[in-house]
Amino acid sequence: MSSVRIATEIPPAEAAEPRAESPWRRFAAEFAESPLALAGLAMLVVIVVAAIAAPIISPQNPYDLSQLDVLDSKLPPGEHSSSTGTTYWLGTDDQGRDMLSGIFYGLRISLAVGASSTVIALAIGLSLGLAAAYFGGWMDALIMRIADIQLSFPAILIALILLAVLGQGIDKIIAALVTVQWAYYARTVRSSALVERQKEYIEAAHVLALSRARIVFRHLLPNCLPPLIVVATVQVAHAILLESTLSFLGLGLPITEPSLGLLIANGFQYMLSGKYWISFYPGLALLLSIMAINLVADQLRDVLNPRLRR
Amino acid sequence: MLAFTIRRLGQSAFVLVVMAFIVFVGVYAIGDPIELLINPQADAVERARATAALGLDKSLAEQFMSFLAGALRGDLGRSFVFNVPALQLILDRLPATLELAGAAMVIAVVLGIPLGLIAGLKPDSAIGRAIMAGSILGFSLPTFWVGLVLIMVFSVHFGWLPPNGRGETTLLLGVPVSFLTIDGLRHLAMPALNLAVFKLSLLVRLTRAGTREALLQDYVKFARAKGLPARRVIGVHVLKNILIPIVTVIGLELGSVIAFAVVTESIFAWPGTGKLLIDSINQLDRPVVVAYLLVIVTIFIVINFVVDLLYSLLDPRVRIGQAAAAH
């Protein structure tokens, strides 16, 4: 890894090389420098596929009550069902639900909530941040002041306030997560847009008398994206973590849509009697998902950070 | 300086009133506490009497105004459940939360900065990589799940540490604390560690990133070229410069640790304000929810204010007057 770094650090070699490499190629090659990041990416792909394919790959539908057998409740991992003989690889919970199936379905909900809240927050933050940078003046002051005030409070506190106010439900938790996240994007976009706006290519675009919309969306926006991608990746992990924490506290999703956090909360009461698997495995699934995203985000940050490129 | 302070104080007061309004109106909108508090068999007269006694028959605006007037006198209403002043309830529980948050912060700082410095100085060495891997793990670990695993290992499996409660407390300046007794320390160890994990990882990364960037700067190259010993280059030139963001983050994270204590307290049944908040939300004990949020928001505003002042002391480039003019 270090040898490749050194090669790119020598200016003559880089200067001598013709610009045959496309930026995407170079990006992919630099990303692949870290085996850890590649492992994270592979893990992430497996997790996302498992979440999407949950109804197909799960041994049972964990929320179809007719498929549950109370006699199978709280079986340790590897036990067989007393009626059908199927193996519960990760054990069962207090209602005789297969934990593996529960985890696949829970993953699905956790990832969906995390991803959708990130996309909505990104759209809102991006628009407001660009507007603040482009229009400046009172609009900039207003938007950034709100963002500043909000960012001075920790995400969990804002989310707790909102959920104490709004109540439970999947739409409410998404609303809370969006409220928590938008300011990060707005701030990131604004600061990079302000820097980019001063550069010569924007000036050149103005000289060419391109329309404002074209300059903002075709010239300014693409060049603001790299830091935004890094922030968004980190934020997806944060959103998933925050959702599961709130659900664990009983303030997030209702019991009819159990995310990983709720599965863990459900198993907590059996922890002290030694039935660890009901909480432990959903937690492991959550940990692996977040770690995979963080590994990818870490490498993205290193690859996209021009300050480390010398 | 004075103008800046006054300006910031005015801003803080404004934020506080807005927060009070949002929280009060929002919390007012959920549920009907009468349903929970009164005997279901009670007749209409009895219900009306209870509603009037709690002041729930007045309009929202009236309730908010009387709430604000009370808040200025330090009266945030009485808990529906405990029938004691809500503020007193929170202040009684606050020392437990502050002790937990303080202990977690000490663990994070004492371990995080040296580890981050090592990882930043030797990013490609085995130890640097190991520290970073640990930090990514710590960053990814859901706080509540770490708590469960700690209980699983140290309480259920080994039986070394108690899984819940605060243990024996002693009075320090009239405030009950756990960390002066062996039993209290045994109760404090797991929750504090649990709460520290995330901040520890954050400090490691921040210190590492700062160190790596500082090492590339001209002033460090110059200090080295001058032949200064490595100890001085790192201790003075690197550390002093990376300390600015670190102090800011430590200050801001102190508040976040208090907020995150909600999770840790719920797991370890630590009798602090966070557990009180969750219980109160579930019991629709509105005055306590509102009072908790206002107390926490106030703590935050104070912390942010102090961090801003510290920032200007540490970094002569940030002149307070300029900072105020920029906004």
Supply database-style keywords.
heterodimer, A: mainly alpha, 13 helices, 2 strands, elongated, disordered N terminus, B: 327 residues, 2% strand, globular
Structural features, described:
- The complex is a heterodimer of chains A (310) and B (327).
- With 310 residues, chain A is mainly α.
- In chain A, helix 4 packs across helix 13 and helix 6 packs parallel to helix 13.
- The longest helix of chain B has 39 residues.
- The two termini of chain B are 15 Å apart.
- In chain B, 36% of the residues are buried.
- Chain B is globular and about 85 Å long.
- Chain B is built from 13 helices and 2 strands; from the N terminus they run αααααααββαααααα.
- In chain B, helix 5 runs parallel beside helix 12 and helix 8 packs across helix 10.
- With 327 residues, chain B is mainly alpha-helical.
- The chains are: A mainly alpha (310), B mainly alpha (327).
- At the A-B interface, helix 7, helix 8, helix 11, helix 12 and helix 13 of A face helix 1, helix 6, helix 7, helix 10 and helix 11 of B.
* Spatial strand arrangement across the major sheet of chain B: 1-2
Q: Could you tell me the radius of gyration of chain A in angstroms?
A: 24 Å
Please describe the biggest sheet of chain A, giving its number of strands, its sense, and whether it closes into a barrel: 2 strands, antiparallel
Task: Please state the average pLDDT score of chain B.
Answer: 79
State Rg of chain B.
24 Å
Gap between N and C termini of chain B, in Å?
A: 15 Å
Task: Describe, in short, the structure shown.
By secondary structure, chain A is an all-alpha fold. Chain A is 71% helix and 1% strand. Chain B is mainly α and 327 residues long.
